[in-house]
Amino acid sequence: MCADTPRTLIFHVDINSCYTSCEKLLDPSIGNRPVLVLSNNDGCIISLDAAAKDLGFIMGQPWFTVQEKAKELGVVVRSSNYELYGDISHRVMLLLESYAQEFEQYSIDEAFLTITASLPQARVLARRIKEDLARRVGVPVCVGVAASKTLAKLANRTAKKIPALRGVCVWDALPPQRVDALLSTLPAGEIWGVGSRGAQKLAGMGILSVKDLKEASLGLIRKRFSVVLMRTVLELRGVRAIELEPERVFKDQMMYSRSFSDPVTSEDTMRQVLSIYAQRASGRLAKSGQVAGLVSAFCSTSRYAAGGFVRADVQVKLPAPTADPIILTQACAQLLERATFGAVRYAKAGVVVSDLTPAGATALLDPFALSHETRDIAGLVHSIKEKCGPRSLGVGYGGLAQSPAWEMKREMLSRRGTTHWAELPVAVIK
DNA sequence: GGGATACAG
DNA sequence: TATTCTGTATCCC
Q1: How far apart are CA A102 and CA A104, in angstroms?
Q2: Fewer CB within a 10 Å sphere, N or C end of chain A?
Q3: pLDDT of residue A368
Q4: Enclosing domain of residue A342
């Protein structure tokens, strides 16, 4: 096909080290200093900018092992501020969608778009998208363009690696010898959809590079692995085998789980934890307009704890689908009968709601409908919290207004500068 | 259908 | 002292 022929192309756009970019956007005083963002509970590094990478910091490193080094080197460190990142992400996605024929938000910082264009047009468009996002939102992105999602991701990665491309890579416009070199030197495990296990197994079969994978037998891959990996192989060959997915309005399950800043050892404290987590789950159900048929709760020690890993869980089939905070709390409290308290130091707990259905799908006249549910307590609580703040209302053990001691650590949190009036950035004009 | 596994970001 | 959280798809029984 001639380069000037219009074709359906997939654009993959992602925000360069998204969380650190958001932190810099709202705090220019960071300047050129390196930036790290930590996971929930300030546990490990989950985002680093180029300067921090140059200093040798690595994704996933436990914070306590590098804390000293970061301080010595004058690195800016932040707890993760998902409210900020979510808002910036939303602005990016709105803009991207306006360019797209089909659109899929893939994660908080990535999206796929389809656009029909010739290769030269695609290059111009990709650059325009990048510049538009820099100007109108203020975040840096890279754009990869190719015939399939997998190749578009690979093109994006290439755009990041090769500075001369200045953040934009149209795969089919690359010189063939460059593509060849890239495919033969890149390990198969670098490809989207090939995880560490898959890469190991492939290596055992002599499939080491992306080129090997691209040329592997479809039948063999299908048989020894899965349809998923077979689709990946097709996509490497330029065949669209993984379609853009429509936005999922309703989820299949929702989980609310957190690690504790301090271990929980008493039954009373765990009761309080479960009560709060169950109410969080109820809130999320109300927000998405769904009800749960099944709720499970679990608590566990740290995987690295001396004395071995301990976990307790319980599944409760609800008498009728519900989002009711009281019913969910009571169900989750059944976990307390299964867990042992005293010697065991629980490090995390969680609540999972599943068997989800849209609220109102079961008729209100259903004789099995729960009386709580017909009164929509979850929706009521949700709307009150929306109006009066997240701490305005709580049920039972979860109703306390103060921060409990076990609540996750976020000691280096930035301001939520785009979503809360009280936390607006301040500009000083001198 | 349920549980285990793999994967992603 | 200590290593995130959330969600989906597939395989296999």
Answers
A1: 7
A2: C
A3: 58
A4: 254-398
DSSP calls for A384-421: HHHHH-TTS---GGG---SPPTTSPP-TT----TTT-G
Task: Verify if strand C has an atom below 7 Å from the CB of A173.
Answer: no
Inform me whether the pLDDT recorded for A260 exceeds 70.
Answer: yes
Task: Judge whether A325 lies within some domain.
Answer: yes
Total number of domains in chain A:
1
Q: Does residue A308 belong to any structural domain of this protein?
A: yes
A319 lies in a domain?
A: yes
Which value, in Å, is the radius of gyration of the alpha carbons in chain A?
25
The whole-model pTM stands at 0.92
Residue partners of A404: CB distance under 8 A and separation at least 6 = A269, A272, A273, A276
Could you list the beta-strand ranges (E) of A16-90: 35-38, 45-48, 76-79
> Tens digit of pLDDT for each residue in A75-130?
999 999 998 999 999 999 999 999 999 999 999 999 999 999 999 999 999 999 99
A341 touches strand B (CB under 7 A): no
What pLDDT digit, counting tens, does each position of A198-238 carry?
898 999 999 999 999 999 999 899 888 988 899 999 999 99
pLDDT-derived band at A331 (thresholds 50, 70, 90) equals very high
CATH number of the CATH domain containing A359: 3.30.1490.100
Q: Nearest nucleotide to A305 by CA–C1' distance? A: C2
Chain B nucleotides near the protein (CB, 7 A) = 5-9
Q: Confirm whether any atom of chain B, the nucleic acid strand, is less than 7 Å from CB of A356.
A: no
Helix (H, G, I), strand (E, B) or coil at A314: strand
